[in-house]
Structures are given as structure tokens and as C-alpha cells.
Amino acid sequence: MKAVLITGTTSGIGKAFAEKFASVGNNVILVARNEQKLKEQQLFLQDHYNVTVKYIAYDLAKEDAVDLIANTLDEWNVYVDILINNAGFNECGLFVKTDIRKELDMINLHIRFTTQLTKSILLKMEEMGWGRILNVGSTGSFIPSPTDAVYSATKAYIMSFSNALRGEYSKTGIKITTLCPGATKTEFATKANLSNTLLFKMAVMKPEKLVDIAYPKLMKGKRLIIPGVYNKLLVMFSMMLPISITNRITVSMLKGHDKTKKYK
Ligand SMILES: NC(=O)c1ccc[n+]([C@@H]2O[C@H](COP(=O)([O-])OP(=O)(O)OC[C@H]3O[C@@H](n4cnc5c(N)ncnc54)[C@H](OP(=O)(O)O)[C@@H]3O)[C@@H](O)[C@H]2O)c1
């Protein structure tokens, strides 16, 4: 069976992607930790769309996560032709105030897991000669962010990794895309205690709208997707301005978070 594998489907952007792919007739493999939500999502998608939906409930920051996924796909005889590396979270704050265990989990999830899963899936995609991989970065992929240093660094890795891989597959049917959302209305901001920051009080996009923008560009095989004019301008200015200025702007955008308070 051919299927789309999406990580982080129990809420937000991953959930919207799962519904989009199911609605256009793709079989879907859902991956996240919350088994109850995954079960409900499986039933909902199978009830509403005539597709097969399976799920894997696991903490993807764990070292054996990719082995578990690869073995499960083999057992089910599932071949992944579209991979959405979306699962992620933020641990925001001044670097000395943030929780190092969460930051190491973030590095494990955003960097180690994404890298290892991409390799595992690509090896099979090569045999078929066609595939799409979407790695979810952030506008922060372009902006080293004081008071969000580790998060923005992991997202910079995702963009650099995806851009380089894309070059390896330039003359093939396999395309690697980086999606760089800005503030999006999901559980992300609440979980990271970012809801009171300027960043999440300005232009916040709905995940369904983000996916409507991203889906056709992904299928066309675009290299980079920055959804929305506001996010495009943010990235453009961050590339034009000196880093000392973007540092200061980022600090202002993230003020309001309880771990960023050194800046009075
Ligand atoms: N929302 C924004 O403003 C924004 C902006 C830029 C980039 N992004 C990126 O967009 C992606 C999706 O985030 P979102 O906004 O949709 O946030 P969200 O609503 O919090 O969803 C995150 C998803 O990731 C899963 N997840 C988190 N840690 C996991 C782990 N260790 N193992 C397995 N699954 C895990 C969560 O499921 P479980 O809890 O069930 O495991 C959930 O399904 C992330 O990579 C994020 O960095 C978001």
C-alpha cells in the first residue's frame, strides 16, 4: 500500500495536513505520542474519506523511533511516497533560563529524528524514482533568535539540510521542500507559553489556510514555501538588515514570555 506519512498529526499543522491528504484520496500514516487522539483521528478520517488510515503512537525524540517506524511500515507492507516531517515544539526563553532536557529533546526531534527518518524513507523512494518530502522549518530558520536560540538553530538546520538534499535529487522525480511558517494558530504557542508575545498578537495564520497554500506548492516540488505576505516580508527584511538589528527586533517580538525578562 502507498501512503503519506505525517509526523505530529494530533494537532495544528500536522492535523490539517492529514485531513488535506485524506480528502484528496491518499492513504495516511499518522505519527505522534497521544494514542487516544490518534485513534479518534483515524476513525474520523476513515469515516469521512474513503482511505486507509493507520497510526504509530511513539515519542519521536527517543533514539529507536526511526527503527520502530521502519519496522512497522515493513510489517504493514506500506511504501511512503510523501513524507511530512512536521512534529516539533519550542522551549523559549533566555538560554540560561530554559530547560536543557527540553532543548535536548528538541534537538533529538527536529534534527536527529528528521535526519534519520528522511534517510530511511529516501532509500525506498529512490527505488520508485518519485517522492515528495516536506520538512517543516520556520521563519526562524532564517533568523537566529535571541531568547529562542536553540529552537531557531534547529530550524536553521532543517532548512540547510533540506536545501542541500534537494541539490542531490535535482534531476530526479524526488523533491525536497522546506516549509517556513510564521506564527500559526495551533497548540504550539500555548505549550511554549508564547501566546502573550507580540509575535503571536500580530499576523497569525490558521493551520488550514497554511496547508491550502503549502499543498499545491509541495506537489509541484517547490524548494521553499513561506506562507503569507507578512511572513515573506519578515524573512526578506531579516536577510537585508544587519544581525544586530534583527537580534533586537526578535527580542521585542518575544517579550511577554516569562523566561525572557532580563531585558527591562
Ligand atoms: N505554530 C507556529 O506558530 C509555528 C511556527 C513555525 C513553525 N512551526 C512548526 O510547525 C510544526 C508543527 O507545530 P504546530 O504549530 O502544529 O504545533 P502543535 O499544535 O503543538 O502540534 C505539534 C505536533 O507535534 C507532535 N509532537 C511533539 N513532540 C513530539 C514527540 N516528541 N514525538 C511525537 N510527536 C510529537 C504533537 O503530538 P503529541 O503531543 O500527541 O505527541 C503534535 O501533534 C513544528 O515543527 C513547529 O516547530 C509552528
Structure, described:
The protein has 264 residues and is an alpha/beta fold. The chain has a single domain (2-254), classed as NAD(P)-binding Rossmann-like Domain (Rossmann fold). Helices cover 49% and strands 15% of the residues. It has a seven-stranded parallel β-sheet, with helices on both faces. The N and C termini lie far apart (57 Å). The model has no long low-confidence stretch (mean pLDDT 96).
CATH topology: Rossmann fold
What class do helices, strands and sheet pairing give?
Answer: alpha/beta
**Principal-axes shape call:** globular
The chain-level mean pLDDT equals 96
Please compute the radius of gyration using only Cα atoms: 18 Å
Q: Count of helices?
A: 9
Write the H/E string, N to C: EHEHEHEHEHEHHEHH
- Strand residues, percent: 5-15%
Distance between the termini: 57 Å
Q: How is the quaternary structure best described?
A: single chain
Descriptive keywords:
264 residues; alpha/beta; Rossmann fold; seven-stranded parallel β-sheet; 49% helix; 15% strand; binds NADP nicotinamide-adenine-dinucleotide phosphate
Task: Please sum up the structure shown.
The chain has helices at 12-23, 35-48, 65-76, 100-128, 149-168, 188-191, 207-220, 229-240, 243-254, and strands at residues 2-7, 28-32, 53-57, 79-85, 130-136, 173-179, 224-225.
